[in-house]
Structures are given as C-alpha cells and as structure tokens.
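Support case: NDP complex. Customer-provided input:
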Amino acid sequence: MSMNQQWLLARTPPGGLPVAEDFTWREGPLPDPGAGQLLSRTIYLSLDPYQWGRRRRGLEEPGEVCHGRAVSQVLKSNMPAYGEGDFLFNTNGWQSHGLSGEGISVFNYMFPRKIDPGVAPIATAIGVLGMLGLTAYSGLVVQCQPQAGETVVVSAASGGVGQVVGQMAKILGCRVVGVAGRAEKCAFVTDELGFDACVSHLGDDLASDLAAACPDGIDIYFENVGGKTFEAVLQHLNKNSRISRCGLISQYSNMDDRDPSEVWLQTGQAVFERQNCGVFPLAVGNFVAEHQDAFLAQMADWLKDGKVKYLEDIRPGLENTPEVFRDMLEGGNFGKTMMQVADDPTK
Ligand code: NDP
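Agent response - structure generated as follows:
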C-alpha cells in the first residue's frame, strides 16, 4: 500500500539559510478525500524562494506540511470537474500525496487547474506555463508596460522568473540586460535566451558593469533579489523608469528582523522621487483572475513557435527537498527548480 511521505515545518526558522532542524520527515497512511475533495499524487514539486520568506515570517505553523505548488495526478475524486488520471496544477505542498478542494488549499483562488499534456510538458505548469510565467508577465507587461527600444534589467536572470521576463522583453522590442551569478548562467541568458547582455553580481564593480551594459540607462528594472544588485541599479535609473518589486531573494535569509520591503523602499526613496519612478509591489495572486487565461494562451503559442525557451532544474526524490531548497537559495540551481517526486507518466 502507498504511504504518504511529508516534510513538515519543525519550527519557525530563526534566521539564515535552511538547516535540517527546520524540517521533520513523516510517513503515514494516505488520506481519504471527503465531499468536494480529491486525492492526488505529486509528480513535480515547485521550490521557490518565497517559501523561505513565508516560513521565516511565521506564515506557516510548525507541524504543518510545508507549502508548495505542484503538478500532480488525480487518484480519487469527489469533485465532479476532475476525474481519475487528470493532471493538475495544485498546492499539494512538500508531500507525496495531497488533498485538494473544499477547505484544503491555503490559496483558495488557486483551486486545482487541469493541465493538458498535449500543450506542453506537464512540468511547465509550475514554471514557464504557470505561476512563474504569470509572475513575469504581470510584473513586466501589466505593471511596467515596456515600450520598444527601452532598456530592461532583470535580476536572477537565469532563474524561473528571470528567464521569462527577459525573453518577453525581447519579444516586445526592448534591450534586455540580465544580472546573474556564475559565468555559465550569464552565458546561458545571452547565448541561449537572446538577452543583449548579462553582468555578474559576483564581479568587483557591478555598478560600472551595468553602466557599460546599459549605455542609455535603465527604463525598467524587474527586481528579484534586492541588496547590492538593487543599489547598483539605482545609480542608472532613467527619468520615468518603472520597477516591479517581485522578490528580494538576497534578503530572505537575513539574520536581522528588519522588514526587507521597508529597507528596500528607504534605500531607493530619494532616487525614486528624483527620477519620478513608478514602483510596483508584485503579488502574482492579484493577477490570476484577470490575466491568467490570456497569459497561458499567449505563452502556449510562444512555446509552440519556439519564441520562448525555458530551462528547468529537476532534482530527484522528495526526501532531498530541504537540501535542494537550500541549494537554490544559495544560487546552486540553474533554471526553474523542482523536485521529481514520482515518475511522470507522460514521458
Ligand atoms: P530563481 O530560480 O531565480 O532562484 C533563485 C536565484 O536567486 C538563484 O539561482 C541565484 O541566482 C539568485 N540569488 C540568490 N541569492 C542571491 C543574492 N544574494 N544576490 C543575487 N542573486 C541571488 O527563483 P525564482 O525564479 O523562483 O524566483 C525569483 C524571484 O521571484 C524571487 O524573489 C521570488 O520570491 C519571486 N517571486 C515572486 C512572486 C510574486 O508574486 N511577487 C511569485 C513568484 C516568485 P544567481 O546564481 O544568478 O545569483
């Protein structure tokens, strides 16, 4: 008989990067779906930097299954719209099997979404053809409204969100400059994804490297990391520039109690005022109802036509999740990070 394998949050993490003491492994019987619920097995589990921010801020309780989005397959359903064998995007979390439906999801606006395996590989539903792609679209296209010829800078450029932001900006006719870590990541975004340039935040003088890569200044900054990358970008923002503040990865493991968003705003305040910048905090959940369907249709076409490429970093075994999570937060991932929890029957 199958067992449910789970990672629970062991404690509200005190700070720094994840360690073994933050998580507890548990095995138990499979749950039975109640009325208005379904049981699915997790195939791919999405690992995302924001999960660490949630845990550190106490938005997950110790003893709860760690939150996470997933691609899963229905095993038993008491929900008329979903049948056994259907593939879903849902929020199973860090476990091999999960219930969805009435009273289950913490993100109720994301009730299970069926995935058509004929459109694209099912793993893309937690990457380019899902929430990460929608995040990129919402921040870049909806919030910042790029115009052809403008210069767009995106940090964490080779990651799940960053790679989509840059490619969409290219489609819209912008000059696109990525910021990434290792040389192979920088080479990937220019040589494979077609960005115009990429600078490394590991170099000695990021501000000068950015100046060289952005001779006409920066019109749009898609913020994924904060910290010293943000400080370097600030020096080159043009008048009427726009910033989508999507994430602040470099701050999620800070040991102090300062609110990263407040620090970020204070750091930029003078420049924002001087340059008349539009600053947009981003929460992708606010864009689902209005933009998700149109985005998914558009992205499916771009993928089919080869206009958007994507790189996934798929690691084996639910049991390895905490180590891979930490590795991603330290930049060890290369592309959208996910765990392969069970075999993908479409492959
Ligand atoms: P990534 O796949 O980009 O993985 C994280 C990357 O961050 C690492 O590979 C590393 O890349 C980079 N990084 C880590 N530490 C630092 C640092 N100190 N300075 C600079 N870069 C660092 O993650 P995602 O694409 O999943 O997420 C990107 C951002 O989007 C995150 O901030 C996340 O929280 C945010 N997000 C926000 C959403 C919203 O609704 N606002 C929704 C979804 C995601 P490198 O080696 O190149 O430095």
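The CA atoms of residues 117 and 346 lie 7 Å apart.

Case will auto-close in a few days if no follow-up is received.
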